[in-house]
Amino acid sequence: MNVRRNAAALAAIGVLAAAAPAMAAGPSPSPKASVPAGLYGKSDPTYDGVWRQSLTLVAQRTLGYRPATAAVDWLTGQQCANGSFAAFRATPATSCDAKTMVDTNSTAAAIQALHATGGHDAAVTKAVDWLKSVQNKDGGWGYNPGSPSDTNSTSVVVGALAATGADPAGVRKDGKSPYDALATWSIPCDQDGGGALAYQPDKKGKLAANADATAAGVTAALGKGFVAQTGKAPAADACAKADRPTPAQIADNGGAYLAAAVAKSGHLMSVMPGATDQPDYGNTADTVVALAADGRTAAAKKVYAFLEKSAGPWAAQTGPAAYAQLILAAHAVGAQPGDFGGTSLVTSLNALGPEPRMQAAEKQAKASDGSSHAGVWWSVGICLVAGIGIGFLLSTRKKQQP
Asked: Distance of alpha carbon 259 from its chain centroid, rounded?
């Protein structure tokens, strides 16, 4: 997810390696675009405006918040008439045309966000229909319409379909579904990187293990989107051979690969071109969600513990998408995002844009940082009643004394 968010920017400056996930092509908006009202974060939204807004709204809804109207309106205002979304449109009042760089990732993310917020069925339906119209013949999707399919783009689309209640297996082009595409990118167990998923085949058709693509592919194979909880434990810890793996086998084999990849350090390393030797916090957060969804609870919690100790500064520097990823990772393992290494992910995220509100029915049970106030106020009430009762008894005793 972290790589997909930055892919268009990297493509624009020509440093994205061929094996890196999902890139946009063609001319891009000015990298000096100002941040409009309603959008979360303070950094240039040119390459990730819709993506980070969508993750933010999904994370807020997962916590029980009702996102601010201004935030939701900003996202809906980014949609083109045909249902698609671009990474960011600086002038949304202007109609989209052939030069508008719409993409599947932004569209699929927006679908998950608008479906989660509710009340935007028409916009969601149009976006889903657009995604179906640009499905490739292999059953998958590329970043831009017509570009070769890749695991990351296909996975985020699967998440959008599943979030809206559609069966991804039934969305087909030339008889092939996205699960058929994922199967072709799943590396056989007896090969280097066995169990992992490749981003996409290279020019010679060879598959190379890609941890980010694997995390995306695992959640997609399980029919999950951005939001996932602990699933059923896999039948085996190791990669299981299969000539044509089923979605469940793709997920379990990918989960086995990820569990092994983080077994020693508790995190993934950055593989971006030119990056220093450092942890990749974004893809590590995605790995927590994937491991939890695949029922690998112990491994998922170990990785989350690493993030809790180390990822705070990264999130503060990166912004809303990073906070949202960590919140979704916390949700996947049942952790408390209101206390993440001594800080509140929830408060930090909500402070970066229009303030959301807790739904009325949940205000008594949850605080704005995701913790419960109900027990606190119940305890206070008990103390007050007890105090009154004690005072009454003492007063009565004094009156009864001779």
From this structure: 19
Provide mean pLDDT across the span 4-21.
38
42's tokens: 């303070």
| pLDDT(96) > 80 | yes
Q: CA-CA distances (angstroms) from residue 168 to 107, 178, 221, 244, 327?
A: 16, 7, 10, 18, 26
Q: How confident is the model at residue 34 (pLDDT cuts 50, 70, 90)?
A: confident
CB proximity list for 46: less than 8 A, separation 6 or greater: 9, 28, 29, 30, 31, 33, 87, 88, 90
Q: Smallest Cα–Cα separation from 110: which of 23, 49, 33? A: 49
pTM listed for this prediction: 0.84
**Which residues does residue 340 pair with via DSSP β-bridges, in sequence order?**
343
From residue 234, alpha-carbon distances to 230, 255, 289, 291, 299 in Å are 11, 9, 15, 10, 13
Please tell me the distance from the alpha carbon of residue 35 to that of residue 41, in angstroms, as a whole number. 8
d(CA 163, CA 225) in angstroms, rounded, equals 6
What was the pLDDT predicted at 369?
Answer: 54
Name the region of 341 (left: φ>0; alpha: ψ -120 to 50; beta: rest).
left
Distance CA 145, CA 101 (A): 10
Q: Which residue has the tokens 């979304």?
A: 85
Residue 8 to residue 27: CA distance in whole angstroms? 10
* pLDDT tens sequence across 249-275: 999 999 999 999 999 999 999 877 776
Place of tokens 């939890």: 292
Amino acid 90 reads A
CA nearest to 288, candidates 320, 344, 335, 338 = 335
Mean pLDDT of 354-372: 62
pLDDT of residue 275: 65
